[in-house]
Specification:
Structural class: alpha+beta
Number of domains: 2
CATH class of the largest domain: Alpha Beta
Helix content: 25-40%
Largest sheet: 3 strands, mixed
Mean pLDDT: 81
Number of helices: 3
CATH topology of the largest domain: Alpha-Beta Plaits
Strand order of the largest sheet: 1-2-3
CATH architecture of the largest domain: 2-Layer Sandwich
Radius of gyration: 21 Å
Low-confidence stretches: none
Distance between the termini: 39 Å
Strand content: 5-15%
Order of helices and strands: HHEEHE
Length: 124
């Protein structure tokens, strides 16, 4: 088991190819054909989610030296920083937030919130 999960369980995967039954080239061809299917194409929503994820990583790396425990949530280029501390006590983080806004010009804004609603992941 790996982290409590059996990696050989085929129900965990969307696609299972028995390499002992097909050639590697046939497996590659099959994967490429499936990847071209409509249901695997990028949708506007999935593209936005990937952009938000990339932005989350960029901002988290930028804040790592100042506040490594800050949680970051991004929705459509609006950034929500979840922290327990009062923003007035976090002057270094405020300075970094200003730098982030300059470095990533297409951000809509950065807000500091105390918590996020877990179910909808919408800021409170």
């Amino acid at each position: 088991k790996l982290y409590g999960i059996e990696p050989w369980d085929p129900s965990l995967y969307d696609l299972v190819l028995r390499i002992d039954k097909v050639t590697v080239w046939d497996a590659v061809d099959t994967i490429c054909r499936i990847a071209r299917l409509k249901q695997f194409q990028t949708s506007p929503e999935s593209k936005r989610e990937m952009e938000d994820l990339a932005l989350t990583i960029k901002i988290k790396n930028f804040l790592m030296d100042v506040k490594p425990t800050v949680d970051i949530y991004i929705k459509r280029k609006s950034v929500y920083l979840v922290t327990e501390a009062q923003l007035s006590e976090e002057s270094e983080m405020v300075n970094k937030m200003g730098e982030i806004m300059k470095m990533i010009p297409d951000l809509k804004g950065i807000k500091v919130v105390k918590e996020l609603r877990r179910k909808s992941r919408a800021p409170q």
